[in-house]
Amino acid sequence: MSGLIDGSSAPEETNAIWFLQPTVDCVRYLGEELKFSGLVKRSLTNQTGMHLLMKIVREWTAVPDDLKQGLAILEAHNEDFAPWAVEEVQSGYKTVHAHSVVNMWNALYSSVHETFSILLLRDTTSRSAAKHFLEKSWKAKSDEFQFADAKEVGQKLIGRLLRTDGAHVALAKGFELLGVPIEPGERKFLRLEEVRCVRNCIVHNGGRIDSYTAARVSSLPWATGDAITINDALASEYSEAICEFLSCIQDSLIQSRFSPLHGTKKSPSGQSSSHTQ
Hints:
A hairpin with a 5-residue loop joins strand 1 and strand 2. This protein is an all-alpha fold. The protein is 63% helix and 2% strand. It is built from ten helices and two strands. The protein has a two-stranded antiparallel ribbon.
């Protein structure tokens, strides 16, 4: 099992898709996140009309004595939550979407970080490339290289790349450096840097756009100091960008030298055939 959540261990040596395991786990997590956010939105919508249901139950049905206490508790809870539920629904579920964006970016980042880490741990060529790139920032001893070292190097690598490039370019450069060329040029991937910066503003700047983000991301629908309000349409664009980039990473890993399928291509009949790279 991958260490996507606790980051404590690499996939087992016997795992045939060890190079894919972090992204597989990430796909599963993103699916759960989308289901969970949908469930929360439905629950909030139901909460906004709960007082009407309570009124009908109390006025039009004979409530048994042993259920009256439970009904009173539900009514009290509704008084506490209904105003916020109404506000959240009217805002287009801005809080739900904000939490979802934070969680989805964190999942993608963790998946990339862990993939970098296991490639660094198991492949000396990847380690040499990272060591050359990081130069003086490289602190690990090559003859005692452990998973904790790999995670530290992977973190430094991502941080260095994000200093100068947008997320889609930076992460693509990191994969290419470690031996997994991917094509980040698709226009939809440009949203990744927006997702990253918006996530950081939500977590670190009280949910408002900071000057760094406003200057770095030209596609923002907000100006410096504006409160971030993510509606259904924008949330869908953000999740699509993350999922499409994750799919691109998986496709590239499958075709990389780390995969048993490396050196094969699909024939017109759909069967795999060997060819020279």
